[in-house]
Here is the input.
Amino acid sequence: MAHTRKNERRLLTGDEMEFVEKARHPVLGALSDDDLHHLVGYLSDRRARALTIANNQRRALRGKGGRGEVTFEKADSGNRQKAAVLTDALTRARREASRRATEVARDELMANAQRALELKRDSKRAKRPANLPRPNQGMRANARTRVDPIGSVGEVGRVTKFVAVAQAKKDSRG
Here is the structure.
């Protein structure tokens, strides 16, 4: 249930009211991430304190121990309502923190997807070897890089003729 500002001012101290006001838009959206983190921590601590006091008062009413005698008028000092107001403010602050975390994760996911798409496109592009001729360069002979294992050109001819004669002798044996 929504709480009126008049009721909130009645229930909360000045500092608590200041932090609850920070937990409302548009102030909440303008907070830095650090300030938002501190706001969530403060509201959580104050809510826990209010709930602890309310539980102790209820326990003392039942006679289960507590600080002194508590009458019904003193027991209902509004700590449960105060905790409810702080819970609402805490919910708003946590929802904003969650929204920011989701936004950061979405931006990171988009950046990763863009990078993956670029890598995929790069892998499909034609890769040309460096020694192929480029357009408008014409046909030019490449310099020989291989060294003949046999030696001189005359040696190549002699070996070729030797192999041919040996093959002919083998064929004539038949």
